[in-house]
Amino acid sequence: MTVAQTTNIMPGDNLVAEGIPPIPESLAQTVDRYTQFRSAGFVSWHPERREALIVTRFGDAPQIHRVAFPLGSRQQMTFFTEPVFRASYQPTKGDYFVFSKDTGGNEFSQNYRYDFATGDITLLTDGKSKNSGGVWSNQGDRMIYTSTRRTGKDTDFYSINPADPKSDRLLAEVEGGGWGGLNWSPDDKQLLVIEYVSINESYLWLFDTTSGEKKLLTPKGEKDKVSYQGGVFSKDGKGLYVITDRESEFQRLTYIDLATFKHTYLSTQIPWDVEDFDLPHDGKQLAFVTNEDGISVLHLLDTATNQEKALPKLPIGQVSGIIWHRNNQDLGFTLVSSRSTADVYSLNTVTNKIDRWTESETGGLNTANFSEAELVRWKSFDDRTISGFLYRPPAKFTGKRPVIINIHGGPEGQSRPSFLGRINYYLNELGVAVIFPNVRGSTGYGKTFLKLDNGYLREDSVKDIGALLDWIATQPGLDKDRVLVTGGSYGGYMSLAVATNYSDRIRAAINIVGISNFVSFLERTEGYRRDLRRVEYGDERDPKMREFLLKISPLNNAERIKKPLFVIHGKNDPRVPLNEAEQIVKTVRKNNVPVWYLMATDEGHGFSKKRNIDFQFYSTIMFIKETLLK
After folding, report:
1. Most buried in the list 166, 273, 423, 563, measured by CB within 10 Å?
2. What residues form DSSP beta bridges with 256?
3. H or E stretch including 588?
4. pTM greater than 0.85 (yes/no)
């Protein structure tokens, strides 16, 4: 008698897999369609023609493609083993574009020029430091970008004509890793610059684009910290359009008169954050996006009257990356919703006609049947209302459903209705409900809420998940005895913290690129990030704060983790170094708790290559079946 052989999927040479049982090839075949989703993002308009650069993936990693007209073929322009997410046309002729790429997820991006005439690619940066993508001058003859090449931690400003790499020169030295260029003045003599200190504190500067001389626009030392996010010059150069929470709980669209520094607030009637905006070449109308309870709403403002113009209604979801074409009519953007993967669209603001530029593949699945987000709320320990989004499995699954709590990163992030991709498999095929909570410290709910987890308040956000576990117990369709918690980055820390504080109330935890010890994290995260993170978490160099951070760190409470743990990390992670994963794995294993470990040698802060994402997906399904569904 012949016995059928079971073939297993072996991890690639780039993957270290420990404690993970053999993954049968039949599993990969079963879930295959859920690994075939594609998406597309808007990147840049051609300055003369109505065509665009987009980012999408056909091989293992996302690359830059050119699309000549709506729903036209996607012509691939870059072919690298590493992802390319960012690019911009030269802004007057468009005969080349500049793009950025790192190596193995290390986030030390380098800038390159792609020439359409020859297909040649030219390195524009030093090949070693961390570089920003840069901001184009209006004349298209210069680009100013930031680089850490001088000290490894300070993001100094450099000026270059991308057509001539030898023109690269240091423009201005600064201190800190939170600096970035925003927009050139209409005469190209000044650059608007942001100095980011924390999500609650940032400052605007003007830099002379020839001498590098700088002038502070927004005062320092005030009692109430103010956040500025983004900014562009008005067409006449006399003012700035910015987003700020000055004198407000929420981020408002604001006009600043440069002569008087008077702030005129343009979106006060909307009690939500403005999160993105762009001004066209003629400066006559301003497009902006608000985040209204997690849902994006697109607005159009006449800059002469400050009155809004009616726009066609977009599907409920998220709008990002809005960019005007130089024809002053077409507004390009990316749109994603629960039932539609991210795709590229444009809106003609004269005709109100919406064009779809890409129609990304969904593995042959009918996404019209996918679960939609349900906004839910619960009371926390201090009677504060916390909210999140619940996705329920299809009605074919009866009885109380097991639950995955998926906590966002940041911590200044926000879970919002979006396309869940592979997570739809857990809903549609395993019958698991998924909740995405927005604990205190999340963006989108005002700056008071944003500060509620800072410093010594860190564990209050963990208590919000404890309150969520209480809420789950009251829901007739959810099973309080079958709960798994997961999250990435700060969400990885949260999953570990829940596993230490509520181990008796969960079945398992998955920690993806998460912090296990705040002190070792702050001491080892890349230099350009260190001070920025100390503002949020606390300064480990202060003895009292150090003692507190060590006390609450999951690594130092690991004996309380009693349920199976899955730890996933990238070797080249510059944000949360690999040591954070290695030390929690080693410590929890000493307690005879089952620990699965997956590490990719060619990834950083999360996996970006399809083959690695797929293996992570297969392993996660196995873990869910082993711990949550039995």
Report:
1. 273
2. 240, 263
3. helix 579-590
4. yes
Q: Whose CA is closest to 100, among 127, 67, 120?
A: 127
Angle between helices 458-474 and 490-501 (to 10 degrees): 70
Closest CA to 586 of 517, 485, 498: 517
Residue 20 DSSP code: P
Which sign does the torsion angle of CA 169, 175, 176, 178 carry?
Answer: negative
Backbone angles phi, psi at 115, to 5 degrees: -95, 125
Q: Is 477 helix (H, G, I), strand (E, B) or coil?
A: coil
Kindly give the parts of the chain with pLDDT less than 70.
Answer: 1-6
Provide φ and ψ at 251, rounded to 5°. -75, 120
Quote the pLDDT of residue 60: 86
Each residue of 63-83: b (16+ CB within 10 Å) or e?
bbbbbeebeeebeebbebebb
Residue 592 burial (C-beta neighbours within 10 Å; 0-12, 13-18, 19+): exposed
Residue 574 is predicted with a pLDDT of 87
Residues with Cβ within 8 Å of 107's Cβ and at least 6 positions away in sequence, in order, are 130, 526, 574, 575, 604, 605
Q: What share of the chain is helix, strand, coil (3-state, %, to 5)?
A: 20, 35, 45
pLDDT digits (tens, 9 = 90+) for 15-42: 999 999 999 999 999 999 999 999 999 9
Q: Return phi, psi of residue 2, to 5°.
A: -90, 130
* pLDDT tens-place string over residues 60-103: 899 999 999 999 999 999 999 999 989 999 999 999 999 999 98
What is the secondary structure of 513-560 as a DSSP string? S--S-HHHHHHHS-HHHHHHHHHHH--TTSHHHHHHHHHH-GGGGGGG
Rounded Cα distance between 111 and 99, Å, is 6
Sign of CA pseudo-dihedral 41, 44, 45, 46: negative
CB 140 within 8 A of CB 150: no
Task: For residue 109, give both structure tokens.
Answer: 């991006």
Round to whole Å and give the CA distance between 604 and 596: 19
The single-letter code of the amino acid at 538 is: G
* DSSP letters spanning 137-155: -TTSS-EEEEE-TTTSS--
Single-letter amino acid code for the residue at 228: Y
Q: What is the DSSP letter of 474?
A: H
Distance CA 138, CA 291 (A): 30
Contact 78, 114 (CB under 8 A): yes
